[in-house]
Design a protein that fits this description.
The complex is a heterotetramer of chains A (346), B (531), C (309) and D (283). Chain B contains 19 helices and 19 strands. Chain B is an alpha+beta fold. The radius of gyration of chain B is 24 Å and the shape is globular. The relative contact order of chain B is 0.15. Chain C has 2 domains: 82 residues, no CATH class; 214 residues, MetI-like fold (Orthogonal Bundle). Chain C is 77% helix and 0% strand. The chains are: A alpha/beta (346), B alpha+beta (531), C mainly alpha (309), D mainly alpha (283). Chains in contact: A-C, A-D, B-C, B-D, C-D.
Amino acid sequence: MMKSNIPNSTDLTCAIKVVDLHVDFATAGGVLPAVRGVSFELEQGETLAIVGESGSGKSVTALSIMQLIAKRTGRISSGEIVFDGQDLLQLDEHKLREMRGNAISMIFQEPMSSLNPLMKVGHQVGEVFRRHLKVDRAEAKRLSIEMLRKVGLSAPERRYNEFPHQISGGMRQRVMIAIALACRPQLLIADEPTTALDVTIQGQILDLIQDLKSENEMSVIIITHDLGVVAEIVDYVVVMYAGQVVETGYAREIFEQPRHPYTKALINAVPKLGLRTRTKQRTRLEEIVGTVPNLLALPAGCAFCERCDYAQEICSTSAPSMEVVGARRSVRCHFDLTKKDRHHER
Amino acid sequence: MNLNMLKCLAFAAIVGFAGTAQAADSGGEFNFVAPYDGSILSLDPHKTSKQQDLLVTNNIFRSLYMWSAEHRKPMLELANLESVSDDGLTYTYKLHADMMFHNGRAMKASDIVYSYERMLSMKPVSPNAGHIQIIQGAKAFESGGADHVEGLSVLDDLRFSITLNDRVDPAYYFYRPGTAIVPQEAVEAAGDEFGLSPVGSGPFKFEEWVKGSEVKLSKFDNYFEAQKPYLDKLNFKILQEGSTRDIAFRANELDAILVEASQYPQYKADPSYSEHLVEVAEMFTRLISWNADYAPLSDKKVRQAISYAIDEDTINKKFLKGKAYNPVGWLPSTSEAFDANGKGFGYDVEKAKALMAEAGYADGFELEILGTANKSYGVGVAEVVGQYLSKIGITVTTQQLEGGILYDKLVAGDFQGIIWSFGSGVEPLKALKRWHSTTANDSGNYVKYNNPEYDALLDKAQNTNDEQKRVEYLQAADRIFADDAAVWLFNYNKAVLAVQPWVHGIEPVAIEIMYQDFADVWVDANSPRAK
Amino acid sequence: MFAFIVRRLLQFIPTILGISLIMFLLLNLIPGNAALSSAGRLELAPEVVEQIKAELGLDKPIVQRYVQYITRLAQGDMGQSYLRRYDVSEVVFSRLGATLKLAFAAISIALLIGVPLGFFAALKQGTWMDMLLTVVAVGGVSIPQFWLGILLMYFFGFMLHLLPTSGYGNGSLANLVLPALTLGLGYTAMLARITRAAVIEVLTSDYVRTARAKGLSELAINVRHVFRNAFVLILTTAGLLFGSLIGQTVVVERLFSWPGIGSLVVEAIFQRDIPVAQGCLLVIIFVFLTVNLLVDILYRAINPQIDFE
Amino acid sequence: MMLKSIFAHKNLMFGGTIVVLVVLMAIAAPLLAPFDPVFDADLMNSEMPPGGEFLFGTDTNGRDVLSRVIHGARISLSVGLVTQILNTIIGVSLGLVAGYMGRFWDDLIMGLTNIMLSIPVIVFALAIMAALGPGLINLFIALGLTNWAYTCRITRAQVLSDKKKDYVKAAKSLGYSRASIMFTQIMPNILGPVLVIATLGSAEAILLEAALSFLGLGAQPPTPSWGGMLSSARDLLFVAPWLSIFPGIAIFVTVLGFNMLGDGLRDLLDPKSVGATKLGGVR
């Protein structure tokens, strides 16, 4: 099996590089390989989207970068995650903690449950300042209020003293962003940051992330199952399926000319590509027929084979490998969609 | 008189101490138990008839008479008997001088009258009023028909007389701890609360009552018997659980405990305790009452067959671990009319089978025996009895009931057999009268026993003045009762106290071994609570 | 908050009324002659029994007796003990202190041992230590209480002579240890399990993941985020436990001759001293309700998500 | 998948094994026990220590302790089973009625449930036993009537949440009667938690029987109940320790088994319920 094409040299413009990441989970049914050899690279200042259905391993990949995989059940079995010239997987827990919330931070899908319900939101922001900037209580408070203002909360002094249940979902996500961006991280990982929010709020949050990104000169990884939501703001896309990367490429190329049947299906599931519809009632992601394969009992061939409209005999017997098909562009398919002659539609 | 010193000597002999009268040590604390059904309810002796309460009040109060362990009968305590009238109904007493109540006032003859009248006039009536009702005019006074009891009169400060309804020995009534003498002014000052902070004239005065836990008494310095009591402090710890008591005693937290049958062999076998066991045949006879209205049991032969079929000796030895005496009749071995030559039925299955066949019950019948959960005379024993009776074809079922319910059934005659324990002392004639045909079925003669021969013997005993004849009549009556097998006689209780080696003066009190008189008890210097 | 407490206190009334009715009927259904046992002896002349019955009011119909009871109760009068012939309140309240002391000691043991153990087990989730703690915890609640008590009494009191075997002492601490342990052990086990489950739930929560993502140390995470949230979960169950503990005292108090309300209620039922039994039950239930109210107040004080509404 | 996860839960396996063994012991008691637990009594064999003919020794009546322990499984299991069936029936029925009928019925039943929750089970059972007298049947009644509040609450809560769900609405629109909706639609959904409660409740009932025996109101002799045996042996700790050790261990192991089983069932069927971490035994 051919490895990814990503060069091994340390590129100074590279924000983060993930190389052949494998993550396993111990479950009642046996070892579940949630991530199987994921590699990608993100350049300084870029916004990258990892796209895939639930169970594709995209969130696990993101959590692996933070090394927040639950140790009791999950294990990063091999791979490299190079950040700032260091392999994060080799760092000890102390160094990792120095880094988390500081150089790399993360925001999560559920703004309600991601905030401690018993702690004032201001304290939850202030905690980061106290931890990483080693400032005193008063200074932390001042910085927190400033941060809350920056993420667009009205009357931040009042919000500071409120509890999560007292503010709206959109505000909570703003608080989460305030926490994540408090220490001006180089890299922000946003795991489905808008999924739990109203359509109107979704756009605001994405705009906020975009604004703060340019202000802070950071790189962003957005994890999403919905290409449509992020189409306008991403530079580079990594499509994942069943724990593997199936296609990578610049956003424009991917949207214009998907090479993997799965990517195509994902794009088809979005009604109007490229148009972020804020007010219009948007139908849910059109479901792709079939279900994600059981990772405990993977088929011998291509993992997407069962659901693929273009599957041939070889697809069920041999797993395709990742092939470079352009600049930072690769695809994992026996039959590249662009080479139409090799397909006959069923 | 130094009666109590005598008692000590007698006791020393019983428990096997050296014959030399050891000088009693003064001081120390004594931890005794209150082993019966839980909390102490009241320390007002007139308001309770529970042994659990009276075993404490017995040391705070004194009654006119008190039970003497070695004479096995009540003896005068507070007064001397000056005279008895010719008709035998009027008794004149003179109190000992300088007897003090704990509040510092000297006891007067009027206190006796007040105490007895109080018992009769209380609302609700005192449970012990029955003992007082032998006095002339008591009933009239109780029902409000008279403003004082006719038979009670104060003669002077110390002298008083009591006139009775019938010729009975008042000693057997006025020795009860529940007829104790109380000081009027203290009772009236305390009102309903007198039972919470009692004032008496006994050797110990009330100190503290931790409800549900213990009663603490302390030495009464002005007790009328010189030098007594010896102990500075006396505590009654409420310890209902046999196992708890046992462990506490072995851990030396207690100076004496009541021993249960289950633990008895262990104490017997343990050399450090076996020499310090105080044992007595208490005046209780355990039995199964047979209901004569149940057809099979109406036949004397069947009842006799049952008595032959059960090996009470083995049950007493094995099941009760020897903590019982085999019965020969109704009267227990501590009774003055006990028939030392008497014999029980013995164990003879063949004879039992023959009797069953004669009675026409060769194939047996079904029999239900009711009992309480009591280990020594409850359903446990009835089960064993059932094991024996199965050999002569009688199928026994047992049912466990609570005392109150069982008693209701007993009174109502709603049973086939009930296993129970009845008082069979103190006065033998009174004890045997229970089975006299004129005794109401609901107030003692629960088995409706009716044998004219038996009645006649009791009547003769009552009317004779010859002490020896009287005993002979009583013994003859008892033999008839035993032979009629109206009840199955199981045993006389052997009450046992285990006593620490440093303790002296605990006595085998046959009326109730827990009614110890601590005026006479002292502890050696090696007691953990000596000083 | 004041309004909340008042409203909750008012809610006591129907509960207590309901319980008093159920218990009054039940206790009066108990066969056995209350008048007889109130006289404290079995062999009494029938007319004396009738007289006592009349004096205790037992000759009236049960409905009338209940109405009378409730009317007096509303005025704070729990009646007179059949056996003791003085006020039930005097009887019951003289015992309440000992039970509260025992229950408080037991729940303290349970909290001080059970909560840290459960916390520890949760942090070590899945290891052999966790397994061991789980087995010990389940084992702890599976022993018949009186048996455990006798064994403790035997080893600590008799074999080792470390502690008094039984009794109240003068309320000394040494006397409290064994009964409190006997009573508390099951609850220790229970709290350890509750704590473990609560901590595990909190540990897998999103906000703890957020705390980790902030780069906080484990200590800071446990103290500031895990423990407080777990405690809210523990608290709700601990309140119920304390209430049930008061009921459990019936066995332990009897075994250790502990002069509390638990031994009293058993005794009163056996002796058919119905006013006392009834009084005990009402007090037990009142304590249970009060403790739960206090826990509720505490819960609300800790948990900002719930207002005093 | 289901089977696999059953095996994956150690507590479920462990508890289940114990309970199955106890059940087998109860079923095969007459075959396993060397003697009759009640009638093979001979005072001559009173309190023989373990060994020889009597593997676990004999009791005061001279009965074989082993046989009594084996037969005791029948008593303890029936105490667990019967009382829990009663509790479950009462709890589920009242919970369904309260949740489904709402309003007056809900208030009434929840009021009653709150009352039941505030009276300690053991005290309530004690009062009932005092009213009925000791004995196995009465024990079933006393324990079967007093411990249904949790089941009732959970059933009601489930009904309230299910009521809003589509399938119940659908059933309603199809014209099914209230009763049939209650029983056919909602019952399967509450089976899990109710089963867990009943399993833990069995453990509790066995311990309560022992506690009531201690207080003198358990199954009455000569019934070979473990609680009764243990309770009557408590005075004999120094004299005949085997009389308390064997029934004590029997109770401990069986209760442990039921607790483990209930615990495992909860992990399997109802993994999210943190609040319901109660165990049979302390309440």
